[in-house]
User: Fold this.
Amino acid sequence: MDKIKLFFKPYISILFLRDYRVGIILFLFSFLLPSVGILGMAAIFSTIIFAEIMGVREHYLKYGFYLYNSLLVGMGVGYFFDVTILTLLLTLMLSILTFLISFGLNRMFINYSLPILSLPFAFVSMLFYLASLKYNSLITNILHRVPFFDLNLPFSAFFKSMGTILFLPYNITGLIISLIIFFYSRILFFLAVLGFVAGVLLHSLFIPFSASLNSFYNFNFILIAMALGGVFLVPNIRSYLIAVIAVSLSVILIDSFEVFFNLYALPVYTLPFNIITILFILLASIGYKYFNYSIKGTPEKSLEYYLSNIFRFGGNDIKINLPFSGKWSVYQAFDDEWTHKGEYRYAYDFVIKKEGKSYQNEGKFLEDYYAFAEGVLAPVSGYVVALRDDLEDNFIGNVDRINNWGNYIIIKSLNGAFYVEISHLMKNSLSVKVGDYVEMGQIIAKCGNSGYSPEPHIHIQVQFSPVLGGKTMPFKFIDYIKANRLYYYSLPKKGEEIEAVIVDKTSKLRMNFILDDEFVYKVYENNEEKREIGFKVKMNEKGEFYLTDGKNRLYFYLSEKTFYFYEYEGKKSYLKELFKLSPKIPLTNKIVSYYDILPVNIITEKTKKYIIEFLLSFNYNLFNKAVKYEKKPLEIVSKFGKISFSFYEKGFKTIEYENTKLILRNEK
Amino acid sequence: MSKKYEKPVIIKVDFTMASKYGSPLKTQKVRSEIDGVNVRNLVKEFGSPLFVFSERGIENKYNEFKEAFTSRYPDTQFFWSYKTNYLDAICKVFHKLGSKTEVVSEFEYEKARTLGIEGKDIIFNGPYKPKEALKKAVMEGAKIHIDHWYEINDLEEIADELGREIPVAIRCNMNTGIYPQWSRFGFNIDNGEALDAIKRIYEGKKLYMTGLHSHIGTFMLSAAAYGMEVKKLIELKNKIEEDFGYEIEYIDIGGGFASKNRLKGVYQAPEVIVPSADEYAEAVTNAIFENNKGKLPKLYLETGRALIDEAGYLLTSVWASKRMPDGKKSYIVDAGVNLLYTAFWYNFDISLDKRYEGLNEPSMINGPLCMNIDVIAENMMLPPLERGSVLSIWPVGAYTYTQSMQFIRYRPKVALIDKDSTPHLIREADDLEYVREKEIIPDFLK
Assistant:
């Protein structure tokens, strides 16, 4: 099965899609010109065999471009020549050459995180054409080429361009490819049309319209628009605009290449597409806000993933935990009036207040201050890189102007991307030493009044470097509770009293699903027992875990403080309802309400879903429809229904929505 | 106002701590009110000395501990340790907050019952449980924690008498790496005695195990010791569930969490050395998760001192002052060690009712008893006080009242300040009739 997938995947990869079944359709259609079909097939086989001989299976399995570049080369040969022993041999050699060039290019490009697209194909085609000038035995019959059958269609120029992508410049193939693209992604289809129209119109300003419309290389417009607008950039109006700009630049590239290459009878093929797209990706990768860091199966999926990441999981910001437990008040926030300025503006100060005061009695002794001696918790998991704890706690009314930071600790985050610094700790209160590993939430010190501190408080900041007093960088708190509402990935405002979320380990234990755990439910509809259904825990090849009822998959993740579902594959099912009922489960025993945003494919169906998915690229706020959830100790309630847990059992005890109720029967 | 005359003395001046509030010679600890009620007014209304409890203080502390434990381990239940403070009103405050009851004698058991606590909500601990009291507790469904082998026999006899099996827990002791090790109560885990006791219970077939209890000590300044305790209890639980098929419903880890009282002989401030509720909770719950096999047990806590100590104050008034031969000033106040048994091991935090004029000097506070040992504070820096100055001694919520005695003087009134800052009388002062009530003069002396 995997081998079949491997073989057909290159066909669909050319269209930036992933479903190998459609690869089969394209494979079959490639035989409209038998030489294209046969030599294409031969190219894939040659590449696989060569790679096997070289013992680099992992490599060509890992990267799709090895095979699709060879495929394109093979089809290119087939487009010009009939199938003969000689052309087969040529295909074999060119495939291997393509493989080698692909590998070489990838080695270089990977340093810049650039894709090689079909650049190897473009190079090898050129070499092949140059060489073929000398091979008198190869006679092209391109002028007599006709497919088995074709249709007459309006927008023929567009469909032919589409077909050209697979060396089949006919209406019928163009139509099939268009339908496939439309079926999988409305955004890609839109971009294909947009690219084509923009490119042709702009081109027509320089050359006659009919020449522009029927140019053999118009498929470059389509590929550029799809690659940039839908694949490598996150789809939205800005990315679409960039795609159009790229298309318009390619006009000049196509024409100039054409003029120059024609001197040697060289085809231009996809070279303009490759050059333009790669240059744009290179530029976009250094800071374009909507650069697509995780390319999914379709632009729609990429977009949903991107929006989920932003709206549900706080985007790519630095996220840390609160450095305390219990209720504390914000004394200074980012950019605040006393000391959080300039390079030090991204910092927080916290004190404890009761009845509006941070101290009892007259507040003249350290121990009068509620914050004094309270535990300081590690805000991230990581390693201690620096600390000091030998400075006296200043008595009230005095500050240490020499050692501003007082007793401090600097923790390097596990991914090494940032450092967290906490200041003004109590003398001798640090319970860890340099080099120690600390776990998020671990008690590491006590709040004190050392350094430039007018009263006991916790100062926390995130830095680029492990140097005391290093430049600060912005961050967010993973979660906190304010007035019984649980906030995710936010920043409290000055003066606000917030409460840290302590992980209830029993609820973490309940959600700690292990491979092959199975949860069998009795399903009741209108209180009538209907059937039994089992959810099993499985893992896919990428190491992602999901619950499955045999057909549908609901992907979940258990983080330090939350259990959440993040992706659903399949049709309407109980698992899909489960996603709606509990997209995120805070692992806390607190009674809180919180909001979450459900992916479009979870809350909408079919046509409506397709329309919204498409419109989403024009307005991200269509995604931002928050649903309120109420978390009680063993229950989560929302407008969709209710789920409940048992204190002692793993998993969901009951799942209720509309007139349906699932009750956990047992755990195998 | 003319300055009051003070006899001149020579004092060593210490400049090290000079701040904007002045040197320690001028630093005065002032607590003019408790929960918004002026201490002088309290004394005026209820008399002096006076025990004062703060409902707000109790509630804050209880919630702090409850939060620390239940946020990590929801199935946690607090049992109010009666011996810490069994004034009816105080117990009521705890029960209102959701605390159940832990008693160590038939007297405490009866007291809880009269307060309306059902037997099933009472843990009956202690090395001495008279048979009749034990039988009553069993009949009423109390949780019996067996302390010694004799008690197993007693309970088996009771089981025979009642004709049914009795659910029990045993108290365990162990080495948790602290000194002194409390090995006087219960059965030792480390030498296998606890397991032997359970074997004995199993073979007797009249009792069955539902819980494990331990109490490792008092005023424990190490959270790690609790981690060790829980680890050993959970390991024992795992073993007996596997070997005997018992289902251990709960583990009771006792009490002993420290309050912010200052032990004599301890140099550092209590804020520095006393672990927070979170630290205790973290150590305890981590140990459960790391070691438990099978169903998670309920977690029972018998926290006493840490919940009430800081909510209790003793107000006392200065009656006279003297100059001792060594130059030290001595104040005679109306509360003595008869009310402050705990003064023998604590250096209390003693505050003034207001700011006083004059320099601080080394002073001693003595009680009203005509006894040389009646010393409340041996050496503290105080400004010149006058007759009627009110001192508030803190924290005295735990054990102080239950261990105070009628000796030489009557025991004073007790007030509770509710959350709206209204003081209520919760215990009258003793009087002659009360003291003499149970006394009998034999006829031959009449």
Notes: The first strand of chain A starts at residue 319 and ends at 320.
